[in-house]
Design brief:
Blueprint: E1 3-14, H1 17-38, E2 40-51, E3 56-67, H2 70-84, E4 91-103, H3 113-135, H4 149-152, H5 156-159
Antiparallel strand pairs: 1-4, 2-3, 2-4
Length: 168
């Protein structure tokens, strides 16, 4: 695999950072869940943005430590969004891609506090994955997703369609 990606065109424009955070968390949760499912960690996070005038662009950034945790990937994706997207320009489509994948069995260990925190967050994410597998996608939700019911009911895990490479 070269990367794991998920994107969505929303029903309405995303006009505030809160709207963008809700959708980004949904996308990142799906991507990081699939990373853990397949036993990968990523070194690079890439975002795709299409604004309301249908101008589209991609930006990417490297992670300090390769990981598959939702919080680390989200932080990098939102950092890229804030750094490269003009405020007050509504967003219509968002996408998140985990790139530069490596097997999670071959990650360099460290005594750094960030690495220890990342391992703790990975165990929390795995527990959430198990709960969602057993009781459904909406069994565990982030508090921010309760702010907007329309955006929070996006189920990126079950609603996405994977097309073969030749399909265009």
């Amino acid at each position: 695999m070269r990367g794991i990606v998920n994107s969505i065109t929303t029903k309405r424009n995303l006009e505030t950072y809160e709207d963008v955070k809700i959708v980004l968390y949904k996308l990142v949760e799906c991507v990081s869940e699939r990373l853990r499912k397949h036993g990968f960690v990523c070194s690079t996070v890439q975002i795709t943005i299409r604004d309301s005038s249908l101008m589209s662009y991609e930006r990417q950034g490297s992670l300090l430590i390769p990981c598959c945790t939702t919080n680390e990937i989200f932080d990098k994706a939102f950092e890229l969004f804030k750094a490269h997207h003009y405020p007050f320009v509504p967003v219509r489509k968002l996408g998140v891609r985990a790139c530069n994948l490596t097997n999670s069995n071959y990650v360099q260990m460290s005594f750094d506090k960030r690495f220890v925190d990342m391992q703790r967050h990975e165990k929390i994410d795995e527990t959430i994955d198990n709960l969602r597998c057993r009781f459904g996608h909406y069994a565990v939700q982030r508090g921010i997703s309760l702010v907007d019911t329309e955006l929070s009911h996006i189920n990126t895990t079950e609603d996405h369609v994977i097309h073969p490479t030749a399909y265009r």
